[in-house]
Design a protein that fits this description.
Length: 395
Amino acid sequence: MQHFSILKSLIRVALAHDSEPLRHQVERLAAAMTDAGDDRDAAALVQLLNSRERSTKLAPSRMKRSTIAAGERMTASVRVPVDKDSAAPLATVYMPEALDATLPLFPASVQDNVDALVREWAKADQLLEAGMQPSQSLLIYGAPGTGKTTVAMWLAQQLHLPVVVARLDGLISSFLGNTARNLGSLFDFANRYECVLVLDEFDAIAKLRDDPNEVGEIKRVVNALLQNMDAREGRGVTIGLTNHEMLLDPAIWRRFEVQLAVPLPGLEQRTVIASRLLDDGLTAEAKLIAWLCDGASGAEVQTMATKYRKRRLLRDDPNAAPIETALQVARSTSIRVESDRRRQIELDEAPLTVELATADGLFNHAELAQLFKCSTKTIQRRLSEFVGEGPNSGE
Ligand SMILES: Nc1ncnc2c1ncn2[C@@H]1O[C@H](COP(=O)(O)OP(=O)(O)OP(=O)(O)O)[C@@H](O)[C@H]1O
Ligand SMILES: [Mg+2]
């Protein structure tokens, strides 16, 4: 089936909010596909349903919090530790009811790792009985804007625990000299309560190393961090986030039981991110944005789609073709758009039609006609003039 991978992603997203009618419809679709002889894709849908069923069984209410976090219950009025000199807070606390993170769209391999971790927490009792501990420390690394903070918040949400988020860059740069003491206060606070500790901008510690004046300080800070992390073992979940995992001291790296690499979103994921923001399903326009955002992060795709939507709404000429709007957005943005895409979107209509028609089977002729606001005949003519019959007529 054409675009099955995108359909599968959509179903995966929809199944995150488990609903019986939705499951029923997906089962119907799988049955219809089997009847049509599309066994492989039908099996993929059944697998998706099964894996969702498994994660639903791991719902937060079933998790044994006591095995994941120790300490007092936190309330919304809890006093967050502050720097003694400046009185600046060392962390921000989010109560579970204030968390509303949606799991970012990941390729199956990353999703499997996330599921495996949640499963460990949900089945902590079983692990303990077998003499093992559920993983309590996780390092999430990847390029900026790939959903690291969002997945950390989502994971905390699965545990129904408050989240203590400390931005280490702030903690270090503002209070150089007091950093070790502040780290101690931060960890004492997190260890006292049932909570998830999130250490954002984790590489800030490593970056200190670049400053030759701070050799003594960096040693003190790294040691303080290692000691604090060791002392936190068994007290609660700790999640470190970094864009620069290469900078991290191997000793720090080793402290984390699980390392989760968050990749840039693929075409499939970019299409779904864009379509969510365009708010009108899986249109050719969402695909166009996904195509244009080759090499961009999820956050950049969101920005691009939002810009596109604004331009579309406010354009002077209501008959302007989507491709025109995309061109204007591409020209006006500093978002990382691969140089190839920048060159392609600037092409004249006919060669651009050819580029899009040969882009991984992404667009069929009807969609190309929508994007250029012309007839499918015109699309076919352009393609036959350039390459004979287009590879991907899909109508
Ligand atoms: N793969 C993805 N799927 C869906 N949404 C995504 C994806 N990647 C990023 N986003 C969205 O982009 C926005 C920014 O994500 P987030 O802040 O979690 O990224 P980050 O990796 O923590 O960035 P930074 O390194 O700048 O801190 C969020 O709204 C998030 O939902
Ligand atoms: Mg972040």
